[in-house]
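Protocol step 4 of 6: structure prediction from sequence.
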Amino acid sequence: MSEMINFNVPPYVDKAADYMRDCVRNQKICGDGPFTRKCSQWFEERTGTVKCLLTTSCTHALELAALLAQIKPGDEVIMPSYTFVSTADAFVLRGATPVFVDIRPDTMNIDEKLIEEAVTEKTKAIAPMHYAGVSCEMDTIMEIADRHGLKVIEDAAQGVLSSYKGKALGTIGDYGCFSFHETKNYSMGEGGALLIRDAENVEDAEIIREKGTNRSKFYRGQIDKYTWMNFGSSYLPSDMNAAYLYAQLEIADEINQARLALWNRYYERLKPLAQAGRLVLPTVPEGCVHNGHMFYVKAKDLEERTRLIDYLKENGVHSVFHYIPLHTAPAGLKFGRFHGEDRYTTKESERLARLPMYYGLTLSQVDYICDKVTAFYQS
C-alpha cells in the first residue's frame, strides 16, 4: 500500500458545492435559511421526532438540552465516564455534577443495571451515550427515569440512522443530540442537531436557540415583530453548512449501506482471530440496528494495543485509540465523581483500537487492513 490509509475522510457529495453557491447567490448564508429548513424537515420525517433544530455542534445541542431540562447548580446527572467531554461539559456549565457509572464491556455503553443505585435526591437526568452508533438498553433506562421523575438526554452524536427496537436513536428520551462533525457519518464540518420528543418543549427551545427571542415565530409570520423573551444564546449554524449537509442527506441511505458493507467486511475478515481468542470484535445486541459509524477491535491490554497501532502505522494504516475515561481526567476529578466500581471503563478503554472507517473507503482497502491485523497476530 503506497499511501497511508487515513483513519477518517470527511464525507463529501458533489452537489454540496452547488448548494453552497446557491446560498451565496440568494444572499442567504446566515442561520435558518432554506437548507437549514430542508435538513430539519428531513430529520423530522426520517426519525419521527416532533422537532429537529440544527445547531452549531452536538456540544451546543447538549447545552441547549441541559437548559431545557432546567439543570441547576447542585443537580446531578448520571452518565458513562467512557464518552466525549461534551457529554459532561453541558451539565458542568450549569453547575451540575456528572455522576459516572461503569460501562458494559460488550457494547462499551453505560451499564443500565448500575444506573438506579447511583440515583440520589439530587439526580435530575440521565445522559446515555450510544457508543459506535449501537444503542444503550433504552427500555431499562426509560423505566428508571420514569420511576424517579428524571429527564433523559440522549447523546446520539454517533447514532444518526441507528435505532433501538424500531425507534430512531435520539427520539426515545426527552431530548436527543446529533453530531455532524467531520468525523461523523453525515457532516457539515462542525454542526449538530437537537431532537425534541414533546411538542410542549418546542417553543422554549426555539427561544433559547434564537438568543432568547421569539424570532422563529416572527419568521413563520405568527407575530408581527419579535422581542427578547428569555435567556438564550446563538446556536444557529450557517445555512452554507446546512447546504453541505443536505447534499449528503439526499443520498443518506447510499452512504449508510456503504458504511455497513465496510463494517461487515471487517467483521467477517477478522472473525477467525476473534474465534481464536486473539482479539474481541464489536457486539450489536438484539433489537439494535447500527449505522456502521465505527469499527473497533479490542486487544489483550494497553501494551498490545500500542504495538498493534504502531504496526499498522508502519504498514500505512492510520488506526487510533478513543476516549480517556472522564473520571480519570483532571476536570473529571474536579467536577464529577464515579459511583461504584470501575470494573470495565478503564480496562476496556485501554484495549480498544479504532480502524479506518469512512464513506469512500474501499473493500480492497479493508481487506489490506485486515491482512495487516492478521499478520500482526500471526507474528
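Step 5 (inspection) to follow. Residues 2 and 287 are 41 Å apart (CA to CA).
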